[in-house]
Amino acid sequence: MLTAQRQNTKSTSDVSESKWHSSVRPLYFGSLRIDPPILQAPMAGFTNYAFRQIVREYGGVGLQATEFISARGFAWLEREVDAYPDRLWGIRDEPRPLAVQIWDNDPETLSRVGAKLVDEFGVSVVDINFGCPVKDVSERAHSGSYLLRDPDRIGKIVERVVSACAPTPVTAKIRLGCTLDSVSAPAVARAVEEAGAAALTVHGRTAQEYFKGRADWDQIAHLKSYLRRIPLIGNGDLDSPQMVVRAFRDYGVDGVMIARAALGRPWLFRQAAAAWRGDAIPADPTPAEQLDCLLRHYDYVVERFGVRHGTMLMRKYACCYAQGRTGAREFRSRVSRVDSQEAFHQTVRDFFPREGAVRPTDTRRVNE
Ligand SMILES: Cc1cc2nc3c(=O)[nH]c(=O)nc-3n(C[C@H](O)[C@H](O)[C@H](O)COP(=O)(O)O)c2cc1C
Question: Whose CA is nearest to atom 22 of ligand 1?
């Protein structure tokens, strides 16, 4: 677990802070430079083009990822892109680097789609999902986290995709294992590296745990000893710039990936990057700036999906932006019923200025 009380138990904490900061270095996936080594996680239903664009505007993210895409459904998705624009939205045109994540259990299907993403879409990284615990993917399709019980098969899949996508880097995202009794991440890490992957990302929970409890950062750190060549990206529960620094400093990961905490705080990457560099951490945007951000996010979504569908999609993001603020519960219940642009605007305008105070401003350096 990455908690305050555990910080001092690691030997690497002995390294002086200034020395640690002077040793920070960018990350490479093959020859692709990821700078800063702070990655935006793939999140189904959330990390579409609009969200990625908002994150990009704040900066501080070294690599962004799409939500996962079913490799088997890819041909259909391309045909139906007008009716179902979500998954492939923006991929061809948006700034690089960009990782696209795919899932399946068939090496042939995955390698065909990986090659297509490289050749036709020009993506920077093809990431393969070996961590999804959702039943439709895992139990029904025997993909995602289901494959963690079979490191050999994961190795075969990665090998095929690597050879189909070369020289574009192929990466794998895993959990610790299927269950707490069957932690397979060390064997999987070896298989992934030997198969030629360019990096490994580990979410420090098993599939059985879903999102319960805390991510086990000791287990993440332990994997470093199984990797000789490729970088290790740690993921799980990072929700502040300070925690990001601790992940690097105390757990020795080469990169970090942030998921849920950024959904309502897309500026978190900028803050984390400053902390990683040893600079002063920028303050949270004021409520008025957060309101502007949410309305801009709304505009991007509505431009693509139209007002009706776009407004419905934005309800969940608005709840994320409100999380942790006074009156968030009441706001959630109001915003979850809005069905027009006017109602959305009014509801969020009522909420944000009402809370005058900015969250505690932290302009200190993280290690001071
Ligand atoms: C709504 C949601 C959707 C997710 N979708 C994906 C996905 O498509 N692919 C993936 O590898 N992980 C997915 N994840 C897992 C996250 O990428 C990440 O591993 C996990 O949330 C732990 O990181 P965090 O504690 O920073 O949220 C999803 C998580 C959430 C909450």
Answer: 236
Tell me the residue range of the domain where 62 lies. Answer: 4-277
Ligand 1 in reach of 128 Cβ (< 6 A): no
CB-based contacts of 77, cutoff 8 Å, min separation 6? 69, 70, 84, 87, 88
Domain presence at residue 365: no
Strands (E), the chain: 27-29, 32-34, 38-40, 64-70, 98-103, 125-130, 170-175, 199-203, 232-235, 255-258
Residue 93: phi, psi to the nearest 5? -110, -20
Percent of the chain, pLDDT > 90?
A: 82
Q: Distance, CA 357 to ligand 1 centroid (Å)?
A: 31
Q: State residue 346's pLDDT score.
A: 96
Residues 69-113 pLDDT 10s: 999 988 777 777 666 666 788 899 999 999 999 999 999 999 999
Q: Which of 132, 165, 178, 319 is catalytic?
A: 132
* Residue 204, ligand 1, Cβ within 6 A: no
Segment 271-295 mean pLDDT:
95
Number of domain units in the chain: 2
pLDDT at 151: 98
CA 49 vs CA 86, 87, 107, 251: distances in Å: 8, 9, 27, 32
CB of 234 within 6 A of ligand 1: the answer is no
Catalytic, 132? Answer yes
**Do the Cβ atoms of 156 and 188 come closer than 8 Å?**
no
Looking at residue 342, which CATH number applies to its domain?
1.10.1200.80
